[in-house]
Amino acid sequence: MNTPLTIAGAAVSTAVAIINIRTWWKGTRELKALIPYGGGLITGASWTLCVGGIFGWIAVQAVEANNKVGGKAVSGTTGATGGESLAHGAMGHLTYPGACAVLVATVIGAGALKAAGKADKKRMLGGMLNGLTLCATAGIAQAMQWVPDLYNALGDGAVHIFNGKVNL
């Protein structure tokens, strides 16, 4: 994905992250309460690895929409205009088996989203927005470099199982 996130776009994503973290902090602070947000975050991050197809297109559209909303919010509330793009980053690359694992994980995530309650759906979608947008920056992409490694390892593991190279 080559669409850079602007400072204003990052402000919108940061606000979404803060709202999610604050809700968790004010609640029970159990780690399991972060699962909907974290699952959405990882899903969104994985879609930024998809250079083509609908997942890659959604990642680009999310960054562009976030930049527009952020630009309007900043100029409308503060009067400031302009705003530069942040340093663009990339987490790494998916192998073909890794891309297959992203697809399978997305299907599982869609099922979880459908079954989730209203509050968890919001958390999942907020996490997804953050994954789609913040992973376009150099700093967050660097921190999330484990995501393509995870999907590639899962995909390779599945290939080994299907090829009978792993004893279960």
Helix-strand makeup class: mainly alpha
- How many structural units, i.e. domains? 1
Q: Name the average pLDDT.
A: 94
Shape: globular
Q: How far is it from the N-terminal to the C-terminal residue, by CA?
A: 38 Å
Note the run of SSEs as H and E: HHHHHHH
Q: How many E-type strands?
A: 0
The helical percent reads over 70%
The largest sheet is: none
Number of contiguous helices? 7
The Cα radius of gyration reads 17 Å
In terms of quaternary structure, the protein is single chain
* Strand-residue proportion: under 5%
Keyword list:
168 residues, mainly alpha
Overview of this protein structure:
This protein has one domain (about 5-80, about 90-160). With about 170 residues, the chain is mainly alpha-helical. The radius of gyration is 17 Å and the shape is globular. The chain has helices at about 5-25, 35-45, 55-80, 95-115, 120-135, 140-145, 145-160. The protein has seven helices and no strands. About 70% of the residues lie in helices and about 0% in strands. The model has no long low-confidence stretch (mean pLDDT about 95).
List the helices and strands and how they pair.
Layout: H1 7-26, H2 35-47, H3 53-78, H4 96-115, H5 118-134, H6 138-143, H7 146-162
Helix pairs in contact: 1-3, 1-5, 2-4, 2-5, 3-5, 4-7
Give a brief rundown of this model:
This protein has helices spanning 7-26, 35-47, 53-78, 96-115, 118-134, 138-143, 146-162. With 168 residues, it is mainly α.
